[in-house]
Amino acid sequence: MNKAELIASMADKSELTKKDAEAALNGFIKSVEEALENGEKVQLVGFGTFEVRQRKAREGRNPRDPEEVIQIPASNAPVFKAGKSLKETVNKK
Question: What pTM, to 2 d.p., does this model score?
Answer without folding.
Answer: 0.80
